[in-house]
Amino acid sequence: MQLLSYDSAYQQSIRDPETFWAEAAGGISWERQWDRVLDDSNPPFHRWFIGGMLNTCYNAVDRHVEAGRGDQPAIIYDSAVTDAVRTISYTELRDEVATFAGVLAARGVGKGDRVIVYMPMIPEAIVAMLACARIGAVHSVVFGGFAAKELAKRLDDAKPKAILSASCGIEGKRIIEYKPLLDQAIELAACKPECCMIKQRPQTHASLVAGRDFDWDEAVAAAQPTDCVPVAATDPLYILYTSGTTGIPKGVVRDNGGHAVALHWSMKAVYDVEPGDVYWAASDIGWVVGHSYIVYAPLLYGCTTVLYEGKPVGTPDPGAFWRVISQHKVKALFTAPTAFRAIKREDPQGTHLERYDISSLKTLFLAGERCDPDTLAWAEQRLGVPVIDHWWQTETGWAIAANCVGLGMLPVKPGSPTKAVPGYDVRILDDQGNDVPDGKIGNIVVKLPLPPGCLPTLWHNDDEFERSYTSTYPGHYLTGDAGYRDADGYLYIMARTDDIINVAGHRLSTGGMEEVLASHPDVAECAVVGVADALKGEIPVGFIVPKSGVDRPAEQIVKEVIQMVRDKIGPVAAFKTATVVQRLPKTRSGKILRGTIKKIADGVEHTAPATIDDPTILDEMAEALATLGYPAATVAAR
Ligand code: COA
Ligand code: AMP
Predict the structure, then answer these.
(1) At what angle do helices 337-346 and 373-383 cross, to 10 degrees?
(2) Which class for 20: exposed (0-12), middle (13-18), buried (19 or more C-beta within 10 A)?
(3) Cis bond upstream, residue 449 (ω within 30)
(4) CA dist., res. 567 & res. 185, Å (int)
(5) Burial code of 109-129, b = ≥16 C-beta within 10 A, e = fewer?
(6) Which of 282, 251, 253, 241 is nearest to 142 (CA)?
(7) Half-sphere exposure of residue 484, counting CA atoms within 13 Å on the CB side?
(8) Mutate to test the pocket of ligand 2, among 241, 291, 393, 469 (most ligand atoms within 8 A of CB)
(9) Comparing C-alpha atoms, which of 139, 424, 118 is closest to residue 296?
(10) pLDDT digits over 590-600, tens only?
(11) Helix/strand/coil for 560
(12) CB 394 near ligand 2, within 6 Å
């Protein structure tokens, strides 16, 4: 496909989105052509490709076999934790997916039914997602690092007919048994699934509940392949839960048509790859990056996708990424800056690079958190390829701002994910909704309609969609990020405007953690704040005020709340630091000054807000932080 230059593409996409996206839709095979490209009759709910029918699995798998790519690897599964590599061709993938779709169909799962996928990074997880898409079922993948209670919340919201899981995940050298977590989640949830399919891995054997749980391999051996079922472009393909400002996750919905069009288009325009190229997103299928760029986009485009089960360091060493790139001839790598910070910390000179030929690599893409200029410079120098920061969210499903390499690379400005991607009319507004001048920080919003691929709504919750995203600035989507645009049109994403923090590229809610802390019987009130961390970008730090009369040792209470967050939210929360204080800084109206606590911890210059109840408390906070190992806090407090 011949693409326009960035400027022309961007202008056209904003001036005439229907023509722009109709052209991009030519990259997808439709069962029935759409009647209208964009239905804007019911704002803020916009729908793309109304009347169109397609099947996402057909587009991602079957059509490539029909077009002669059957022998090309579709998936390279590289498991550094089991020391195994398995290559799955497009023909093999089609057959495995069709058969597993048969397993689901035989269990009565059909169009519109929800299926929870709680699986580690093994090929069966991708097969599960595609099999759902094949029969029009709606998958909801839950990241393995979440605790049973979080899984239970998702079960109760999605109300799945079936759950697909495995006996274990492998974290470095540790085996994480999934089945006890799954059993506990089903116990906790009000909604019980009709069946669970369990892939038994050799590392551990899960016990099955008779009548409810079935052995994956046995079910596959008995199944008949099933064909692709055409669905409406506007039918949901998946629900992906993400952190909001409270402990209740948001069920981001993705449609079939707009999603396929946008992701297919992005592979050339943003990532500059061709069908047949090897593309590697080093993330996890439980996150949006995994959904979009381990599974759907590379397969929709006919690339080979790498499914990597391992870490950037420790599996076995900081050369792990270079080994995968050289072994599989990876052309584009996409990961989070934290992965590079982890590698840089263990191998600052990049000596492990000397062992591998990584000349296949043309570009490194980073996203998921702010990319600090030091990490960008280190990666650029060591790898000798362009390093492209790009900005997006679970809600959008693909990049809002990027250096669109396939549309002609623009100069890289460290600290900026470059410019708005075609389709996104990005504006920076002040609190009153006025455009702010270049260089001035404001709320980043996107003028509606959002382009194809972005969330049409939240699962069964149009009201919450409007409340969260479109009611603050009517006619605009609120990203929840603050930042600015420079005179050249480059965007800078500086901070969240809500209680969401970003820990090792993982999105977490401090509000959700506070709910857990507050449920401890000795805790009167608490605050959780995201504090800067050299490896993970941010880490959560908790401040607990005990109830009056509580005389148990502070260390004991701290230990208990840390365990509670691990048990109720999961290890992924990385909540390992908390302290007991006598009071929290508040405004006179009683609002906890979390932003000020964060500034103290980060050693950022700050003044006591005019509304503060008692400024002397800031010194107490600085002392508390200093004892936790944040000396910058003491300096800032002086
Ligand atoms: N299943 C079960 N537990 C999991 C898990 C999973 N799928 N993923 C992570 N965890 C656990 C970890 O083992 C760790 O547990 P611990 O506290 O017992 O050690 C905890 O959750 C926190 O995980 P993480 O924040 O990933 O820390 P880490 O120290 O294990 O690894 C990095 C740090 C930087 C190496 C790792 O986060 C990383 O590679 N990140 C970059 C890539 C990425 O995943 N980006 C996501 C969006 S693009
Ligand atoms: P998630 O929904 O998990 O993808 O997290 C989305 C959030 O991560 C965004 O709203 C930003 O706060 C942050 N984020 C993602 N990518 C970037 C980036 N390139 N630069 C700065 N922040 C980012």
Answers:
(1) 70
(2) buried
(3) yes
(4) 12
(5) beeebbbbbbbbbbbbbbbbb
(6) 241
(7) 10
(8) 393
(9) 139
(10) 889 998 899 98
(11) helix
(12) yes
User: 420 with 401: CB under 8 angstroms?
Assistant: yes
Q: Are 532 and 601 in contact (CB under 8 A)?
A: yes
Cα 468 from Cα 461, distance rounded (Å): 11
> Averaged over 529-549, what is the pLDDT?
95
Q: Domains plus CATH for the chain? A: 6-310+390-483 (3.40.50.12780), 498-637 (3.30.300.30)
How far is it, in rounded angstroms, from Cα 21 to Cα 9?
11
Given a cut of 90, whether residue 426 has pLDDT beyond it is yes
Token duo for residue 578: 């908390």
pLDDT, average across residues 161-182: 97
Single out the residue of 334, 325, 398, 400 nearest to residue 365, CA to CA: 334
Binding site membership of 369 for ligand 2 (Cβ less than 6 Å): yes
Element housing 20 (H / E): helix 17-24
Q: Measure CA 99 to chain center.
A: 29
* Angle subtended by helix axes 257-269 and 17-24, to nearest 10: 80
From the CA of 498, the nearest ligand is 2
Q: Are 135 and 89 in contact (CB under 8 A)?
A: no
Q: Which ligand number lies closest to the CA of residue 368?
A: 2
Distance between CA atoms of residues 600 and 607, nearest Å? 10
Q: Distance from the CA of 392 to the center of ligand 2, in angstroms?
A: 5
How far apart CA 139 and CA 133 sit, in angstroms, is: 8
Query: Which of 390, 441, 469, 481 gets mutated to test ligand 2 (max ligand atoms within 8 A of its CB)?
Result: 481
pLDDT digits (tens, 9 = 90+) for 115-125: 999 999 999 99
Q: Span 430-439, mean pLDDT?
A: 97
Q: Which of the ligands is closest to the CA of residue 338?
A: 1
Tokens read off for 427: 């504006």
The minimum-distance atom of ligand 1 relative to the CA of 335 is: 48
Q: What is the pLDDT of residue 638?
A: 37
Q: Which residues contact 5 (CB under 8 A, 6 or more apart)?
A: 407, 408
Intra-chain end-to-end CA distance of the chain, in Å: 61
Instruction: Answer whether 240 contacts ligand 2 (Cβ < 6 A).
Output: no
CA distances from 476 to 22, 104, 438, 465, 635 (A): 23, 40, 19, 12, 41
pLDDT the model gives residue 53: 98
The whole-angstrom distance between residue 246's C-alpha and the CA centroid of its chain comes to 18
What gap in Å lies between CA 184 and CA 316, rounded to an integer? 32
Residue 623, Cβ neighbours under 10 Å: how many? 14
Of 245, 284, 151, nearest to 530 by C-alpha is: 245
Rounded Cα distance between 124 and 104, Å, is 13
Residues 557-615: tens digit of each pLDDT: 999 999 999 999 999 999 999 999 999 999 888 889 998 899 988 888 878 788 888 88
CA atoms of 231 and 221, how far apart (whole Å): 28
In the reported structure, the alpha carbon of residue 187 is separated from the centroid of ligand 2 by a whole-number distance in angstroms of 34
Residue labelled with tokens 């191998």:
347
Amino acid (1-letter code) at residue 188? L
pTM (predicted TM-score) = 0.96
What are the structure tokens assigned to 599, written together? 């500034």
